[in-house]
Amino acid sequence: MAFQPIVDISQRRIIYYEALVRGPNGESAFSILEQVTEDLMYRFDQACRIRAVELASELGMQERLSINFLPNAVYEPTACIQATLEAAHRAGWPSERLNFEITETERVKDRAHMRNIIESYREMGFTTSLDDFGNGYANLDLLTDLRPDTLKIDRELVMGCDSDKRRQSILRSIVALAETLEIQLIAEGVETRDESRCLLSLGLAQQQGYYFSYPNLESLAKIDDAKYD
Length: 229
Known about the structure:
InterPro entries: Cyclic-di-GMP_PDE-like (IPR050706), EAL_dom (IPR001633), EAL_sf (IPR035919)
Mean pLDDT: 91
Distance between the termini: 30 Å
Strand content: 15-25%
CATH superfamily: EAL domain
Pfam family, one: EAL
Number of helices: 8
Protein name: Diguanylate phosphodiesterase
GO molecular function: cyclic-guanylate-specific phosphodiesterase activity
Domain EAL: 1-229
Radius of gyration: 17 Å
Low-confidence stretches: none
């Protein structure tokens, strides 16, 4: 696993670490995920969750831990969470510091199933995030059915926002929408200081991206104070 920090600029601190799967030699998540067949999906998803919790505890993480999961690997939320809860108990990891990040929404045909996962996790005290919002399948229509705690705004909308009035207008609209729906926002893929400052001025203080830190393989990155200025 690798961990990438999510920061809150206004608070000048790391608020989450996202756990990202990697190969034994640091291979990318994509190269690993493309090897996961349908019959292995559930076991793979469970193994990633358990390893993320165990390693976060071993590294002394104090922030919230965000774990990616494949919705189609969850056949029944309460049953499928048990191995994760057992791992958290063994590691002494507080379950309320777990966030589950929904990935690969394009592969989910059953919206009711995804809604059931989100609502079940909320009842169990977890939070959920919807990844890649504003790109491809992770779009506005999902919000007619789903109530995630957080939307992660895709890099496609963040890229060059400091010099792109159209992107700024879209981001302002998303901020207003999120306030109405009482959903938090995280801007993904922040790569430059100018992007970060622009996002902050638009009301997007929670940010993630290479500007702050690349994912660190089996370690926790620290953020230079200058990144917040």
